[in-house]
Amino acid sequence: MAQVEQRIRAVHQQRPIDAVYTCGSSRIIQLLQRLSQELGFSGEAALKQQMACGLGMCYCCVRPMRDKDSQALSDKRVCYDGPVFPLHEVVL
């Protein structure tokens, strides 16, 4: 993971990153959340989640998400509200 962080920092130093997009593991999402706050870029994460119905009716795919302004947690359905969420909202 250290090599990924070093590469992101090197790219950002050469040409500032505006945004990142990932469908990676929780470790990658956590790394990008930390770097986005430190280096000042935004991003989005596509989440993997068990989805029984795919329509949002069964609530099988609910994940907690953080509101950007209030930092309050709310439950969102990955299949209905996502599966792509702003990087800063994802709670791991």
Task: Please outline what is shown here.
With 92 residues, the protein is α+β, with helices and mostly antiparallel strands. The chain is built from three helices and five strands; from the N terminus they run αβαβββαβ.
How would you characterize this protein structure?
The protein is an alpha+beta fold and 92 residues long. The protein contains three helices and five strands, in the order αβαβββαβ. The chain has helices spanning 2-14, 26-39, 78-81, and strands at residues 19-22, 42-46, 62-66, 73-77, 84-86. Strands 1-2-5 form a three-stranded mixed beta sheet, covered by helices on one side. α2 links the parallel β1 and β2 (42-46). The two termini are 17 Å apart. The mean pLDDT is 94.
Class computed from helices, strands and strand pairing: alpha+beta
Q: Which H/E pattern describes the elements?
A: HEHEEEHE
- Spatial order of the strands forming the largest sheet: 1-2-5
Overall 3D geometry?
elongated
Main sheet characteristics: 3 strands, mixed
Number of helices: 3
Kindly provide the radius of gyration, computed on alpha-carbon positions and rounded to a whole number of angstroms.
14 Å
The overall strand count is 5
Low-confidence stretches: none
List the helices and strands and how they pair.
Blueprint: H1 2-14, E1 19-22, H2 26-39, E2 42-46, E3 62-66, E4 73-77, H3 78-81, E5 84-86
Parallel strand pairs: 1-2
Antiparallel strand pairs: 2-5, 3-4
